[in-house]
Prior knowledge:
Chain A is α/β, with parallel strands linked by helices. In chain A, 38% of the residues lie in helices and 22% in strands. In chain A, a hairpin with a 2-residue loop joins β7 and β8 (180-185).
Amino acid sequence: MLGFLGPNGAGKSTTMKMITGFLSPDAGTVRVGGIDIGEHPVAVKRRIGYLPEGAPLYPDMTPAAFLAFVGAIRGLRDDELQRRMRDTVAKVNLESVLEQPIETLSKGFKRRVGIAQSILHDPEVLVLDEPTDGLDPNQKHEVRTLIQEMAEDKAIVLSTHILEEVDAVCSRAIIVAAGKIVSDGSPAELEAMSPHHNAVTMVVRDVPTAQIRQRIDAVPGISASEYVEQNGRVQCTIFPRDGASIIAEVGAVARQQDWTVEELHVHRGRLDAVFRAITNPGEKRGGER
Amino acid sequence: MKNAWIIARRELSGYFSTPIAYVFIVIFLFLIGIFTFYLGSFFDRGQADLVTFFSFHPWVYLALIPALTMRLWAEERKAGTIELLLTLPVSMFEAVIGKFLATWLFTAVTLAFTFPMWLTVNFLGQPDNGVVVASYLGSLLMAGAFIAIGACVSALTKNQVIAFVITVVVCLLFLLSGFPLVLDFFSGWAPQVLVEAISGLSFLTHFDGLAKGVIDLRDIIFFVSFIVFWLFANAILIEARKAG
């Protein structure tokens, strides 16, 4: 599953419109499953399921009529159409609203109709443009779970500007900004680019800051450390050099000095910090917390 | 072409799932009735024919058909469903033809509801039913030309009101292109050939022939090729303005 990230206006949706054959690229070509969309647009469209941004639907149709229409255009007939509709409706939990006009449905249901439409023909490739945008946290979770279930047997391209989503569901993340790819890697690799990756936060009680600083700075592999003192507790954040793991060393120092450690944890690195650093290089690193 | 039919069916159900269809049919019959009986003095003429009835068709179409066609593409653009439709495995022409066909079929149904007029003249006298059939054919062809213009204009904009107004104006131009109102505008400076060509595009001239019962192949070819031309332009416009 590929996560397609970028600030608003970066070209995510435009790229997806080109992949799905809605727009034609000014230069270059798009190949889906080895087929050139410029040469065989209908063949490519057949293999793709697409959820456009905002999940547009025909408001005066019912989900049942709408899915039957999409299924018919997708070449599903009679029994096959009935079977696929039943499966899809069950998968996205639409049974209760099948005969209500789409315009009367809640946002969550509308989005599910949109997703149902895109998976009705069991496509090899699924392109979802901001599938969770505008949903409440419960609905987001539902949609994400649904997408995760489908990831087993489909190639999924998902655009979003919500970073937790990439973390939660994607195996690869591409970040675009101003129409260019600025980063391409797994979410873990992206996290590793964060200065907070493998940083350690430790809270120590009843020890002067200067003493802690002295001991910590002596630990090999440390690039920097920050201290905040409050109510007799010192919170220190220790940054490793080159993203190496340093928690063992820091822990050893604390034991050796017999400090009272109230809290000790490792940061995985923050995607949003990386995202901001990459897509907005002008911004100062001080703002990355 | 199967896809065009599927799209046409969806459009048709769209007309009937909203009040559009019923309002349109009722208003159409009402207007055509008023015009025929009051303005056309249907009874006073004392002739068992439908000449007055058909002579008002162009004007009723002018007012009502743009209302049918204005939503065809403008609504899809506005709702964003155009993206959905055109990323389904359909060709552009299937989509264009499907939408046109839906509206044309709907107009044909409406036209069929005028059958009491035909019954009436048959009850009152012995009309030439061949002329009536030719007139219905002409009327339907002319409606197709109106619809093709309307569909194409609707592809230009997201705004249905703009689509309606422009369609009315364009249709009016083609209705009157055989009349001095339009021709005078050109005759001052344009070469005679062009002026004649323009006057040859008049709907009224071509419809009159058919309404007199003369099924001239040239009139039929005119309307059919006119429809094809505008549908072609429609497809090109959609293709060119997808992003907008």
